[in-house]
Amino acid sequence: MAKDKDLKGKNLSELGDILRRTREERGLSLEDVAKDTKIPRSHLLAIESGEMDRLPGRIFARFFIKEYLSYLGLSELWSQYDSFLPMDEQVEISSVLGTYTPPPKGFRATSRWWIYAVLILLLGASGSLLYLRREHVIDIIKQPRNVVSVETEVGTDASPEDILAAINGFEDDQEQSIIVERPDEDVSLQVTLPHVEDGEAMKAKEEEEAAKESPKILEIKASRGRCWVRVSRGDKKIYEGIIQLNETKAFETTGEPIKVRFGNVAAVDVTWMGTKAEMPRGSVVTVLYQADGKVVKAD
């Protein structure tokens, strides 16, 4: 931030000079700011030089200045700019929105019969499709389940120990079915055991799901000086501002990557998921912290 403590009484040129020096202190070019804020470079140059007449209208000038101040973390300067760019609501709003003429009285409401017609056509098409494919649907319903029979393995005189041995011989991905027949007693017994996952496999799956759901923490500490940062989670910006010396900011995510743009990367230390991350070289850089623990430079 600029060193000027007394901001009152500054003219537009002096205010623009504060913006320019703040931008340069962070190692940002006009092209960098234009890329991040979507404000044309020529408009940024006009703001920094205090030439408001080069901006396209009062409303757009106020919007561009507010956006630029927020980007640099200098929102406290807005009250100064606001006094130079007063907004006349009667003139400014009408110039943008134009005039509004109410609709004439007595207009007829739009008929909605076509909505019901479309719904009827959709229901009819669905019923016809189901009727044409009825045989396929019936085949799916009647399709028998595949079972594994071990009747020949246990034999007709199988003991309980034989049956247990047969159960232990099943593959993990098979449905377990045992048929035991006693011809002399005219008895046939079939037992089907559902597939049960191996204990270690179930534990590994639970740990994997817990790892996906557990929050992942990104910590940024300004160890060697102040640093401006903009932090986004997925496509949403969650923080933008200056981290002061020895201050730490923490951000949390569960699955979405975190993208951080550093204005002074050499001044900070970053810890991602409990591990100190190696920082790329440069002044203004963008880094992507992925949910799998990888750290990628995104410039």
Automatic annotation (TrEMBL):
The keyword Transmembrane helix applies. GO terms for molecular function: DNA binding. It holds the Pfam family RodZ_C. Keywords: Membrane, Transmembrane, Transmembrane helix. It comes from the Bacteria. The keyword Membrane applies. SMART domains: HTH_XRE. Residues 19-51 form the HTH cro/C1-type domain. The chain crosses the membrane at residues 113-132. PANTHER family: CYTOSKELETON PROTEIN RODZ (PTHR34475:SF1), PTHR34475. This is DUF4115 domain-containing protein.
